[in-house]
Amino acid sequence: MRALLSNEIGGPETLTIGELPDPVAKPGEVVVAIKACAINYPDVLIIEDKYQFKPPRPFAPGGEIAGIVEAVGEGVTDLAPGDRVLGSTGWNGLAEKAAVDRRRLYRLPEGKSFAQGASLLMTYGTSIHALLDRGHLKEGDTLLVLGAAGGIGLSVVELGKAFGARVVAAVSSEEKAAAARAAGADETVIYGRAPFDKDQSKALAEQFKAAVGPDGAQVIYDPVGGDYAEPALRSIGWEGRYLVVGFPAGIPKLPLNLTLLKSCDVCGVFWGAFAARDPKANAAHVEHLFRLWEAGRINPHVSETFAFEDGGKAIAKLAGRGAIGKLVVKVAD
């Protein structure tokens, strides 16, 4: 089968179309003929050997897919060939087929496209776990979202509104601010491009404080990191929760005196490990997401689709932090 392969450590330009053996379903697995694969920041890291997992080469990046069941392994009785599914693979999503653990697959709701199905699980799954399990978001809370126009950022904006929060969306351009407002954000902050000197960092903190209000943000969702983290933390409210989600702008060093002064929590969010450790809780979150999706409270925003051969271009665009919403590679018709 064809796959977009990483044969060497490097950026998206090193990816080439090649061949991998057709997968066979082992006990508890399902072979999925992949129709669409969404691109996420781990795809940028994994081909550079900077991710938590380093699969043996050659492998294909791509951890979030939707497609059609082709075959099921021993013990799988609730899916059959022809069923439409979405799921997470870790990697090898940018390939024509993948063997996937049954526990990592969900039925794609009727009427939803493969592109949208491939765009749901990693972003919204991360965000619902972060907001409810780690951030304990409550109705009426103020939620500050960094990087609010990316795929994961828009998912947080939508979920924050669905859960009754006041949402402040922080973005890097007016175009991205418009996307965040369209997703339901109550207010937006437009920040400059890091790195920041001391004065610029202080000015950004004041922007955040003005936007969240005098009581501060009860929850801060940070999938960006870098020089944006400390100014955001300075805007947190008493006993607030700062959610650490990702680091495309770099791994920050936070002054821990701020956590004492605000009696706040800094909480790590690792959705993949949560889903593996507590699959029942994760499945309940996914069912919750399906209900919100059916009700129109959330709607995965696919801003651009790419041909299979151009999957590297999709990863490069995401790496350049120019994407609004989700980028999806169309693997097959």
How would you describe this protein?
With 333 residues, this protein is α/β, with parallel strands linked by helices. It has helices spanning 41-46, 114-117, 121-134, 151-162, 174-182, 198-212, 229-233, 257-262, 271-277, 279-294, 311-319; strands spanning 2-5, 16-19, 29-39, 64-72, 84-88, 97-101, 105-107, 142-146, 166-171, 187-190, 217-222, 236-244, 265-268, 302-307, 326-330. The strands form three sheets. Strands 3, 4, 5, 6, 7, 14 and 15 form a seven-stranded mixed β-sheet that branches. A six-stranded parallel β-sheet has the order 10-9-8-11-12-13, with helices on both faces. α3 (121-134) crosses α4, α3 (121-134) packs across α10 and α9 crosses α10 (279-294).
Strand content: 25-35%
Low-confidence parts, pLDDT < 50 over ≥5 residues? none
Shape: globular
Distance between the termini: 15 Å
Q: What is the mean predicted local confidence, pLDDT?
A: 96
Radius of gyration, CA atoms, in whole angstroms: 20 Å
**Helix/strand structural class:** alpha/beta
**How many helical stretches?**
11
- SSE pattern: EEEHEEEEHHEHEHEHEHEHEHHEHE
Helix content: 25-40%
Number of strands: 15
Major sheet attributes: 7 strands, mixed
How would you classify the quaternary structure? single chain
